[in-house]
Amino acid sequence: MSPGSLHYIAGKTAHRVVNTGDRPLRFMACWPSDAGHDYAAVAEKGLGVRLWKMTEKPSVLRDDEA
């Protein structure tokens, strides 16, 4: 993400936004009410990866690596 950027995320795709910078992140999102979100599955199974800041550079690890 960068200032002024626009992103498309397909329906029924689990996703999240994480601020890895030192400044506040402001973003806006919109989706139709029938977008297909399955929050129960995410609560049960998680998203599969986590973002960790172990050094100065954030690292993405699968849940089984964390």
Plain-language structure description:
This protein has 66 residues and is α+β, with helices and mostly antiparallel strands. The longest helix is centred in the middle third of the chain and has 7 residues. It is flat, with a radius of gyration of 14 Å.
In short:
With 66 residues, this protein is an alpha+beta fold. It has one helix at 39-45, and strands at 49-52, 59-62.
Task: Give keywords.
66 residues, alpha+beta, two-stranded antiparallel sheet, flat
**Strand line-up of the largest beta sheet:** 1-2
What sort of overall outline do the alpha carbons produce when their principal axes are compared? flat
Q: What is the N-to-C order of secondary-structure elements (H for helix, E for strand)?
A: HEE
Sheet with the most strands? Answer: 2 strands, antiparallel
Number of helices: 1
Topology at a glance:
Blueprint: H1 39-45, E1 49-52, E2 59-62
Antiparallel strand pairs: 1-2
